[in-house]
Each structure stands twice: as C-alpha cells, then as structure tokens.
Amino acid sequence: MASRTTARIYRGTPRNLRRLANALRAGELVAVPTETVYGLAANVWDFRACANVFEAKGRPSTDPLIVHIRLLGELHEVAVANDAALALARAFWPGPLTLILPKRATVPDIATAGLPSVAVRMPAHPLFRRLLKAADVPLAAPSANRFGYISPTTALHVQEGLGQHIRYILDGGSAAIGLESTIVDLRNPRQPRVLRPGAISAAQISAVLKRPVRTKHGQPSAASAAAQVSPGQMLRHYSPRTPLTLHSSLTLEAARRAPHEAWIFLRTPAGLRKGDANIRSFSRRGTLEEVAHRLFAILREVDAGRWRAIHAELPLPDAGDLAAAIRDRLHRAAAR
C-alpha cells in the first residue's frame, strides 16, 4: 500500500499517462476520471492490487468491483457474454451502462465478492480510455472515496478523501454525468433487471432488447450481509456525515426559520436573498441533468459547512428514470 503522504494529482499528458499505466501494471492504485464519478482503479488480474482497493476504501469484501474495458472484444476476456449483452454494448458503450454477466474463471474472486458473476462496463471518458489503452489491462474500479461517503466527481474530492491512502490521481475535470452507471443484470437474458438506476433508462434498455425490463425503483430496502451481485445496493450509501432529511418540497420560509441548518432546493428558489447563507440548490436551471451533475458536489460542500442538519428536496417520483436515479442516491444518503 502507499505511504501516508497526500496523493499527487496528475494532468493527462502523454508522459503522465505512461507513468500511471506503468504503475497500474505494477500493482499500484490510480484514481481515474470517468463520465459518471471518479473511480479507484487496479489491474483486475492482480489479486493484491484488487485487495488494496478494498483496503484503501474501507470497502467490505461483499461489495463487488466493476471491471472497466476499452474494446468490445475485451468483454469476452472477463465475462461470458450473451446476445442481449452484446446488443446493449453496441447500443450504449462507451457509456454509463454496467452489465452483470457470468464471469470468466481468470477474474479473481476478490473482484466479484466471490460470486460467479462480474460487473463490466466500457467508460466513455476520453482520458480514462487513453489510460486503459496505455495500461493494456482491464481495470477494476469502484468509486474513489472512503466507503459509504459521498461519491467524488472531481480530482480534489478524491484527494480530500483518499489522499492519505493512495499515490496517484489522474485529473480529468469534473465528471460530466455525476451519478454512477446504470447497472443491468443479464445473467438471465430473458429476464433483464435494472439493479441500479442511472443516466441510461430502463425504457432505453427495453427498446434495444425488445422485451420488458424489471426495475428496483423506489425507496431502497436494507441489503443483507451476504455478497452483493451489484455495487450500490447498500441501504446507507453516498452519505454525508451531517444528518440528512429528505422532503417532497421545500420553502424559503422553512429554511429561514432554521438558519443553523442547510437547505438544498432542486432549483434556485425565486426570492433568494444575499443573507440566505444556509440555502443552496442542486440546479440553477431546474433540469434533472444539472441536478445529477451537481448532486454529490453540493452534498460535499454542505457537509463541510458544519450545519446541524441538512434538508434536501426530492424530484417527483414520476419524473422519469433520471429522477429515479437521483431519488435512489438521496434515499441511500439519508438512510440511518
């Protein structure tokens, strides 16, 4: 594992990419930018490197990692692909979609929580893709934060959370989407299930597969202590340290009556004053895409403000799959 020094942030120069690729092949960990959130990457073929990911994050071994590949042909190196998986890969990769499939025996059990399945995706972030090409190995990578805390969407977020546990951070700017990938279980291709909502909707997946897709939309239920088929299934996850309460709607009047608590509106409210220091918003324009992009960054900002409590406004439950993904993250963040 790395020495107890603050991780260095590297720009994506050709020289730095070669250096970080060499580090990955040698079993080091590298925090990487993706279009969803920042990940903590390790050579998937290296058992010790994968074990170090769990150690650095404080992540339970029952929570599997997602394997990241660059080319469609690499899917067959880590998973047993079926026609449904190939159809979704051609439609949405590179992009924020993770597939759960039977794993190849060569994938270390530690990366899959000991299960015979593996989570795989092909990221779209151009800098991460250049690193994957330079490293020339699939990379296992969960979110680059201490387990259970708010996901990181910038290199600085990673440095603040994991700076004493890793050595290398590749800076690819702010994550474009801001929410983790959609995860679809295709172990039985005749019964596809969305296990974690994200930017790619169940309707889009259903349209490609030409069959209904089951979802787990709604308030999350408690996960067991057994190995999880998919990441992101824990009841409490993405959580600030400050107690978080969720509301179907917020008012300026309520926020002003509790000036020692933070209030986060979905959209910047009309009538906001300069003196409303305890009021934030996930979105300036009111779009769900902007809410998703800013969600974790705003939660981190407010959590650092030493407020007594945080109140956050939920999108409407019938506002579509992106709203469902945002509600999923907020419900897990607020779970006790």
UniProtKB/TrEMBL annotation:
Location in or out of the cell: Cytoplasm
Sequence intervals crossing the membrane: none
Gene3D superfamilies xrefs: DHBP synthase, Threonylcarbamoyl-AMP synthase, C-terminal domain
UniProt GO BP: regulation of translational fidelity; tRNA processing
Catalytic class of the enzyme: transferase
Boundaries of every YrdC-like domain copy: 14-200
Major place of residence: cytoplasm
Annotated binding of L-threonine, by residue: T36, H68, R121, A141, S181
Superkingdom, natural source: Bacteria
Protein name: Threonylcarbamoyl-AMP synthase
